[in-house]
Amino acid sequence: MAKRTNRAIELLSVDQPVYYIGAHSGHVLTYERGKEDAGTWADYINVGMEHGAFDMAGLDHYLQGMVDAGPTRSGHRTPAVIVEAPVEGTSEDIIRFNAWQFRQILARGVHGIMLCQVTCPEAVQAFVESCRYPINKLGVGSGLGEGTRGVGSEGTATNIGGITPDEYRLRAEPWPLNPDGELMLGIKIESVVAIPHIEEICAVPGIGYAEMGPGDMSLSMGYRQRPDPWSDEMLEVNARVKAACLANSVAYHETLSMGTMQEVIDSGSRVFSAGNDELVKAGRAYTKRLLPV
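RESULT FIELD:
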């Protein structure tokens, strides 16, 4: 049986890589699709609302389909579902003005949120605070202010999680800041504006995983198409983001290939796209994965 609600966190907490599926837009959010995706072999499902529709009703139906078709083979009530939010992490004010997006997404019962286009630590701090209840104090006064999430969403979120409202308020916490937390909060650093602030951004408490977004970063650097192979400046930024993540116990998302799989995993990266079934099988075998898939 599963030890945690969030399968991705359960794996990362024992230093196992996680593999996800899901596009940046066009993810069909229906009850039937939820039932189908309940059987996924991926460790979490990325729902792209940065570029896809901000469809809260569809997300409700999708998650309910997962519950009704569950549990998963790994014993979890549903697969972990992480939503890319539409708001850009370019300033504290923008995050505070748009915190309603995080409240709406979390109220559906998802397991995490990805904040895109992050350029400054103040935006990340506001993001983490917006996703927390004020009763939870870990990190407050040490890089974070009090949480600003309000009461009212527990009815829908607990229906998906299968727990009581009191349990939900305690578990709806960012991991690994709270070792018992079940929320996976992520960030994408994908603009040259962010480069001077990389180390400060990755040091904000409450972030569970991060990546250097190569597509948008290459555009921000002036490339019409993402260089293949990456340019030296992109490799340098990627290395800085990765080092900052590892220094702050933040799981790092990196591109994986069959030829680089062992090297990338051994270097500390732990979050990967699961587009290639054979690559995922090889990666799981390499790290001696035990959790059923």
